Amino acid sequence: MKKYKISQVKSSIGRPERQKRTLQALGLRKLHNPVVVTGTPQLLGMIEKVKHLLSVEEVQG
């Protein structure tokens, strides 16, 4: 499966609680702190829900 490097680029302040929980579930804790995740269908769906707050890059290897 593909791996993705995601980092939060916009604040979660003022966002719905559901989006805040999605960011936590993705492993994101602070702004601009990247996390590498495996591209499972569940995680890709979570990324899609909060893509307006994220920066996503595909990782080689």
Please render the helix and strand layout as text.
Layout: E1 3-8, H1 17-25, E2 35-38, H2 41-49, E3 54-59
Structural description of this entry:
With 61 residues, the protein is α+β, with helices and mostly antiparallel strands. The protein has a single domain (3-59), classed as Ribosomal Protein L30, Chain: A. It is 30% helix and 26% strand. It has a three-stranded antiparallel β-sheet, with no helix packed on it. The relative contact order is 0.37.
Integer tally of domains: 1
CATH topology: Ribosomal Protein L30, Chain: A
Give the count of helical stretches: 2
CATH class: Alpha Beta
Across the major sheet, the strand order is 2-1-3
* Class inferred from helices and paired strands: alpha+beta
Overall mean pLDDT stands at 96
What's the name of the CATH homologous superfamily?
Answer: Ribosomal protein L30/L7
Helix content: 25-40%
What string, H for helix and E for strand, traces the elements in order? EHEHE
What Rg do the Cα atoms give? Answer: 11 Å
Any idea what the CATH architecture is?
2-Layer Sandwich
User: What composes the largest sheet?
Assistant: 3 strands, antiparallel
> How many β-strand runs?
3
Strand residue percentage: 25-35%
What would the principal axes of the Cα set say about the shape?
Answer: globular
